[in-house]
Specification:
The protein is an alpha/beta fold. The chain has 2 domains: 121 residues, Rossmann fold (3-Layer(aba) Sandwich); 164 residues, 3-Layer(aba) Sandwich (Rossmann fold). The chain is 46% helix and 15% strand. Strands 1, 2, 3, 4, 5, 6 and 7 form a 7-stranded mixed sheet that branches. A 6-stranded parallel sheet has the order 10-9-8-11-12-13, sandwiched between helices. α1 packs parallel to α2, α5 crosses α6 and α13 packs across α14. It starts with a strand and ends with a helix. The relative contact order is 0.12. The N terminus is likely disordered. Bound molecules: nicotinamide-adenine-dinucleotide. Nicotinamide-adenine-dinucleotide binds next to α5 and α6.
């Protein structure tokens, strides 16, 4: 059953959608498979709304709605800044990715994605792997991040990690005068898909790596490959460090963490790192922490997905495009400095400018 919630029954939901200016929010429920999901389409000015699906155990349903609304909005800005012809969308499936997955849950989800006729294109996010994508792809063509054997680009995480690495190097150049990460104390929070690929890249540069995760097996997998120091999840913010790389969930840059963080740079993959965009981006600036805007530097994954959507997948082109994150980040820091604004605001302006230009172009015919 697909429910578009009636206005009179759910004013608060509409208020939330209005606050972030969403075009469409779709609630998906399938009793047989236990599917409970929300698809949020934020803005389709630049193209079909694209963004991954997250599977997570939310404490309350309201948290899932809040998450999908914020994540889809972030996708609009991410796709705009990355120069992609894609709008912003995202989906969340409520459930435990370690316990609640099944083939038919994802097939059912695929049907809901298909019902939107291409207005939303899905892919992987937290809790979703290429096997799940395969099941979704049995029901819809509006899915990306497909396995290589299906002609897709596979897991986008390695390219996301590469983009984060580019953003981190551009940040190091700005702060230290050179882009080397050799010997830098870097805390990677989240040893999942992106976090572990990021560690691979940082290890090649002989960075001094600290990792934290809530799952022991993930930490062990990385520790078996690289010389890293494992720290407890709640010790992350107090760890003396040069660079904090949030690669778990959002809102970790907040009043509490900013009191405790001693880093010079924040540069990681997680979406919506700032708990409050204005306050916490300003606080970073006041504290002399260079914040690499998340939606700019973590765009490698969606860039990879884009090259799967628009043509036969081409990894080389996706990598070249992702490498540009270094130059865009560098220019963005110059703009932020010249205009005396925080780095998040500078990235937002860049995104909104492209969207406005497209709206203007659409008025011409
Ligand atoms: P993932 O699920 O593979 O990894 C996330 C990891 O964070 C997991 O190992 C989880 O156990 C850990 N974690 C959760 N809470 C934690 C906590 N409090 N402390 C420490 N670790 C914790 O997800 P991923 O694909 O690696 O994505 C990581 C982040 O990057 C997410 O915010 C995601 O939205 C964002 N992102 C991912 C991609 C991509 O290509 N996968 C692209 C853009 C953005």
């Amino acid at each position: 059953m697909q429910t578009v919630v009636k206005e009179q029954q759910a004013l608060s939901i509409f208020d939330q959608a209005a606050q972030y200016e969403h075009e469409q929010v779709v609630f998906c429920h399938d009793k047989a498979t236990g599917l409970r999901a929300i698809i949020a389409i934020h803005d389709t000015t630049l193209g079909p709304a694209a963004g991954g699906t997250r599977m997570w155990t939310y404490a309350q349903e309201a948290d899932a709605l809040h998450d999908v609304l914020r994540l889809s909005r972030g996708m609009t800005f991410k796709n705009a800044v990355a120069g992609l012809n894609l709008g912003g969308g995202k989906a969340v499936i409520l459930g435990d990715a370690r316990k609640d997955k099944s083939e038919f849950l994802f097939r059912a989800f695929g049907k809901y994605v298909d019902s939107l006729g291409g207005r939303y294109i899905t892919a992987e996010d937290v809790g979703i792997n290429t096997r799940d994508i395969e099941h979704i792809a049995t029901q819809t063509q509006h899915v990306s991040g497909k396995p290589e054997m299906m002609g897709g680009g596979g897991d986008p995480s390695p390219i996301t990690a590469y983009g984060v690495y580019m953003g981190m190097k551009a940040s190091a150049k700005k702060v230290y005068g050179n882009e080397s990460l050799n010997g830098k104390r870097i805390v990677v929070q989240g040893a999942g898909h992106v976090g572990s690929y990021l560690v691979d890249l940082l290890a090649k540069e002989n960075a001094n790596i600290y990792i934290a995760d809530i799952y022991e097996d993930r930490l062990q997998a990385i520790a078996a490959k690289h010389k890293v120091t494992v720290i407890a999840p709640d010790a992350v913010y107090d760890q003396p460090m040069d660079i904090y790389a949030p690669c778990a969930l959002g809102a970790t840059i907040n009043d509490d963490s900013l009191e405790r963080l001693s880093c010079a740079i924040i540069s990681g993959a997680a979406n919506n790192q700032l708990q409050d965009e204005r306050t916490h981006a300003d606080k970073c600036r006041q504290k002399g922490i260079l914040y690499a805007p998340d939606f700019l530097i973590n765009s490698g994954g969606i860039i990879n997905v884009y090259y799967e959507i628009i043509q036969q997948y081409n990894r080389e082109r996706a990598m070249q495009h992702t490498e540009q994150i270094y130059d865009i980040t560098t220019k963005l820091y110059q703009t932020a400095e010249a205009e005396s604004i925080n780095t998040h605001e500078a990235a937002l302006r860049l995104a909104l400018q492209r969207i406005e230009q497209m709206k203007n172009l659409k008025r011409l015919y």
